Amino acid sequence: MIRGKLPKRQRLIGLWLLLSGISLFGGALFAAWLDSLFQPQGLARLVLWLGCFSGGGTIFLVGLLLERMLFTPLRHLQVQLARLVANPDAREDYPPEGWLRGLGPDLMRVREAWRADRQRLATAHAEGARSAARIRQELETLLQVLDTPLLLSDHHRRLLLFNQAAETLFDDNPALGLGKRLDALLPVSSLQDALAQLPEDGAPRELLIPCDERWLHVVMRRVPNSNGETLLTLTDATAAWTSEMGARAGLADMLPPLRRHGASLSSAAEALSSARHAGRLDDDLRDRLESVIDEESQALGQGIESLGKLIEDMQQQGERLVPLWSNDLWQSLNERLGDDPLEVLPIGMPAWFKGDAPALLVLLESLLERLQRHAGTASFEAEMLLGNRRVYLDLIWTGKPLSQRELAAWSDQRLDALPLSPRVGDLLRQHASDAWSLADSDGKYARLRLPLPAVERVGAPRTLAAPRPEFHDFGIADLPPPDAELARRPLRALEIVAFDTETTGLELRRGDTVISIGACRIVNARLLASDVFDVRVDPGKPIPPASTAIHGLTDSDVSGAPPLPVLLPRFRNYIGDAVVLAHNAAFDLLALQPPGASVTLDMPVLDTLLISRALDESLDGHDLDTLADRYSLRFPPGTRHTALGDARVTAELWLALLPRLEARGIETLEQALALQASAFDREDACT
């Protein structure tokens, strides 16, 4: 017996074979001695030898019978019970075998009764929570479509909720995630002070704080009748703040000199006129007054030119001018036209530009109506052309260009569909734009061109993520405080990062290194499927074909990827204050911390290989594939032997092992680490 547990199967088989061998060898010696002593002949000699070998043969046959009829069925029964505890809804059942076959009906009755009870409980829970589910679904839908970034934190300033707009605002920021501290996302002392002083009645407080290279306008309010939860709404105020500190500040600085130049010019002109009427104007006085008028006129002209540039900057930086994707504009325009026969077909490459979308839609609709009367067609092509600091919006038709008179008439047209009924020319000036019409070089097509402010942005807009449940988890508020002792924290309350690596080979001490790191996060005993870390690593050496055959990564896949020293700090930031989890963690930790590594992974480590071995010491097979089959876990197609795919299955394996640990009274991190250490043997140490 080892540590009060059943011996491993290998030890039992070894003991059985040893006893059988000793018995057979002893029987052979005894038979040889009797044969030499009595020298029997014929049948007597055969009986003597068979009798001497009968003991060893009986031990061998009885052991073989026990292995097939009892020990193997017992191991299968242990696997089945482990599967039922970890995943009661798994439907792949294995009936008892051998001498345990008679337990089949009883075990089936217990299993079906258990599942029936679970089904009734689930049905009752579903019926009782129907209204809550509807509210939650509406909340998730609202979070998806709301354009205002939202954050909700508990009284420990852990994030309970965020929406997709917040995810976009803090793109690639590792500090955004359920259960993470707000202090890490917005580490501004003034924000922390304001949060501590928020009134309990829900009255808002506003703050302007820096975040990376942006300024965020934050509105904070305590959620009434809650346990200190705080709602934050955020707005990127960088453009408005830049406008206040840039163009508007320049305008304020420019007005006094303009007034001064204007006053000096007026005074000089008045003095010149007075001297001329009084007849006291000599050549010297006239030259001096004309010189003053000339200097002040030039200064005033330069000031007016600078003022014009400032006004143009203010128009481009106005809050109503926002980045727009041209394909979105054309789609919205066609939807606005609706049943109207007018139709716009986008051609060429789409582009980003800056504009007031509602105003542009009304403006383009009025323009298309005028072009329809001019060209006699209802179908137009639309093209975006990139210019120098401008984007040219072209509407194209078959025929002749518009005359300047028609353009002037259109520019004076009022757009009654917009507030205050501005003229077309007013909207063009808002965009620092103009309009002209020209013919193509082939003389067949004509186009009307509107230059619009460009945006330093490339690529199509990111597609909206599918609705997912990881935007909120109000149960985080019930977890222990972040500063609670980690060793005594319940396993279900742990924040865990499951990770895996792919390497150039298995000889880490002989130069093999990491080529891929994948990780996912478990918060409140819940796997967050979209909160992942998945990167390729440049190993600085060729990947052997034998390794490529396993994980599928080639030299071209990691070409241009950052090296490990660059990625390790990013991975450490992703881990944060979490406990790390891996399958055969010693290998992956050694891969991530080669000699001279600048980042140390010194947090507690859970190893599903050791935990499984400690729970089922008498069972063979603790590799990831065997355990995935044992607990009915599935690798999505193409994810086995990928870092992220293996990390996700490791996380699911941990969640399957949790009920079995709790059934044995192992409920804290300290207890889990002690159990894990009990399964660490010399073979692991050598590895």
Automatic annotation (TrEMBL):
Residues 495-663 form the Exonuclease domain. GO terms for molecular function: 3'-5' exonuclease activity; DNA binding; DNA-directed DNA polymerase activity. Keywords: Exonuclease, Hydrolase, Membrane, Nuclease, Transmembrane, Transmembrane helix. The chain crosses the membrane at residues 12-34, 46-66. It is an enzyme of class 2 (transferase). Pfam families: RNase_T. One of its GO terms (cellular component) is cytosol. It catalyses: DNA(n) + a 2'-deoxyribonucleoside 5'-triphosphate = DNA(n+1) + diphosphate. SMART domains: EXOIII. Its EC number is 2.7.7.7. It comes from the Bacteria. DNA polymerase III is a complex, multichain enzyme responsible for most of the replicative synthesis in bacteria. The epsilon subunit contain the editing function and is a proofreading 3'-5' exonuclease. DNA polymerase III contains a core (composed of alpha, epsilon and theta chains) that associates with a tau subunit. This core dimerizes to form the POLIII' complex. PolIII' associates with the gamma complex (composed of gamma, delta, delta', psi and chi chains) and with the beta chain to form the complete DNA polymerase III complex. This is DNA-directed DNA polymerase. It comes from Billgrantia montanilacus.
